[in-house]
Amino acid sequence: MNHKDAEFDPQAESTYECFDCGTVVRATAPDACPECGAEMRNRRTPIE
């Protein structure tokens, strides 16, 4: 595993952030932002 990758446990909650509106949620794996429907990203995964 690359040291920059977040460990993935599909049963564990993590913090996700919306790419468009910035909404932050705790969830296991959201399909889309609950506010605007855009893609979400796991905040533990670097954007670089």
UniProtKB/TrEMBL annotation:
InterPro entries: DUF7129
Pfam families membership: DUF7129 (PF23455)
Domain DUF7129: 12-43
Protein name as it appears in the record: Rubrerythrin-like domain-containing protein
Species assigned in the record: Natrinema soli
